[in-house]
Amino acid sequence: MRFNNLSRLVLISSMLIGSVNGGELEDYFDDEETLGLVKEVWGDKSVEYVLDDKSYCPDKSRILIDDEVGGFFDYYQTIEETIERGKGDCEDLVNLDVEEMKKRGLDAKFRVGIMEYRNEEGNWSGIREWHCWVELESDKGRIVFDRTVGKKGKFGDYRGMIEGGERYVPFRKEDVGKVEGLKELLIDVKRVGYSFDLD
Known about the structure:
This protein has 6 helices and 9 strands. By secondary structure, the protein is α+β, with helices and mostly antiparallel strands. It has one domain: Roll (C8orf32 fold), CATH 3.10.620. The strands form 3 sheets. It has a 5-stranded antiparallel beta sheet. Strands 1-4 form a two-stranded parallel ribbon. It has a two-stranded antiparallel sheet with strand order 2-3.
């Protein structure tokens, strides 16, 4: 989910900077059963993160962005497509993870918002992109799960993610109408069967 011309640079910089997980899952969940359920989903590495491109587009009605000038293309896969292909971009992977967590009785949230990275000097880059991630309430607060960061993905509480170099700011209901394009996006994602959680 990329809506500005600098987002490919953001993606590249995140791969160069790299990141590590925010501790162990055991640090966030005291209940063994809940911990086991979270590990079942997060430990499944059968899908990988890739940018969308026009080489895969079996259903043109699921294209949400096709910007010839900026070169951005965003195709919202079904869960079945993501499993079958074994890959997807941020919203595809989040859609799958949220579904799998909810099947296990976990109250996972499909968050959409702004993400910003630290640059190589350790300063905030100023490049802010629209992004999706999973949010789950833990015994230690809300946890971010993001499969797009680094090779293994990353999880941690919001503060820990900031310390690790990524700042996540979820959109809220009051942002609809204030953030350009958000209202239209919510209509489009509903049309293709996606549902973002806005508090």
